[in-house]
Each structure stands twice: as C-alpha cells, then as structure tokens.
Amino acid sequence: MSRTPQPSPQVRDALMNRARDLGYDLTLLRPTQQPQP
Fold it and tell me: pLDDT digits over 7-28, tens only?
C-alpha cells in the first residue's frame, strides 16, 4: 500500500466499501484533513 496523502477516489471508495463490509461506522472514518465534497 502506498502512503499517498490523497488516495484516488477508487481506492477511497474501495476502503469505504471494505469498512462497511466489516461493520465500521463510516462517519468515524472520514479524515478530518480532507473534507468530503
């Protein structure tokens, strides 16, 4: 996994989908440094 400060939308979407599959609360996973559009 690369440590890019801003992951691509595809990567971020995949992570969000994975987190949802694992049962995480997505509202807690939003980075504070990158406001959602």
Answer: 788 988 888 888 888 877 666 6
